[in-house]
Amino acid sequence: MRARYGIPLGITAVGAAGLAYAAGFEVRSFRLRRVTVPVLEPGARPLRVLQVSDIHMVSGQRKKRAWLQSLAGLRPDFVVNTGDNLSDPEGVPEVLDALGPLMEFPGVYVFGSNDYYGPKLRNPARYLFEKAQGRHGLNGNAPAQGVVHNPWEDLRDAFDSAGWVNLTNTRGRLKLDGRELAFTGLDDPHIKRDRYAKVAGGPETDADLSIAVVHAPYLRSLEAFTTDGYPLILAGHTHGGQLCVPFYGALVTNCDLDTDRVKGLSTHTADGNRAYLHVSAGCGTNRYTPVRFACPPEATLLTLVGRQS
């Protein structure tokens, strides 16, 4: 009897332990990723950029709020918020509480689909099926029906009041330490709200640095930004794969980006141009899948330095 049932019981025990770890520990094991990106003029003073993404705030997540508040201690030169702040229609006050200390710094932002719409319960295996069929978000799928509308206008108004620059299918600027930083942003490609034609034309020649910002790193957006000559693209959305295989990595990206670039710093090449791409794994999860495995929640401190002459 022991030999007959030992293996299935062992598999069950390992699975239960893995789920307990993913839901009870790793999902709250917040990390700071640090990367250096050589995109400034040679000899320029470095700039420190804090990227936060995919907070997916749900009411009552006190540890996440405290950790986000603590990031202000890094004293970044500016903040980039790449969207999906919400996973609960009631979560706006807690997002603003969490980001309050960071809103004392200059910043820019774009929204993601979960800022606009509440999440729906779905089988996680569907991400694998959709990847195999080349379908992601509303790109190839039918429009979502019966979705909850989140109060994104309240987030927008609070960010704007704090002086953060809204990059929703538009351009914006920050002036820091006598330097002009130009930004070009898109609304979320995952739900087909991106309108690149409104911002096409490439970096602004009178700026010291131009940065492209988008929530979901769909290839059409990366191709457009890179072809136009942007040296740096910042994105989120992927959750780093969220449920990864140790020593292998992510199985899905929830968009058409390859899994090799699901998180962290990489490059993208198009039309003879090369851009640095940083994809944040984010610090939250959909409220219906509050687990992470081999992919801790994170924010990123990017240090922008001078290119080698």
List keywords for this structure.
globular; alpha/beta; six-stranded mixed beta sheet; 7 helices; 23% strand; 309 residues
Write the layout of secondary structure elements.
Elements: H1 2-24, E1 31-40, E2 47-52, H2 62-70, E3 78-81, H3 92-99, E4 107-109, H4 113-116, H5 125-133, H6 152-161, E5 165-166, E6 171-176, E7 179-185, E8 209-213, H7 219-228, E9 232-235, E10 264-270, E11 273-279, E12 298-306
Parallel strand pairs: 1-12, 2-3, 3-4, 4-5, 7-8, 8-9, 9-11
Antiparallel strand pairs: 2-12, 6-7, 10-11
Helix pairs in contact: 2-3
Structure description:
This protein is an alpha/beta fold. 24% of the residues lie in helices and 23% in strands. A six-stranded mixed β-sheet has the order 1-12-2-3-4-5, with helices on one face. Strands 6-7-8-9-11-10 form a six-stranded mixed β-sheet. The radius of gyration is 20 Å and the shape is globular. The termini are far apart.
Strand order of the largest sheet: 1-12-2-3-4-5
Mean pLDDT: 91
**What is the number of beta strands?**
12
Helix share, percent = 10-25%
Number of helices: 7
Structural class: alpha/beta
How much of the polypeptide forms β-strand, as a percent range? 15-25%
Q: How is the quaternary structure best described? A: single chain
End-to-end distance: 72 Å
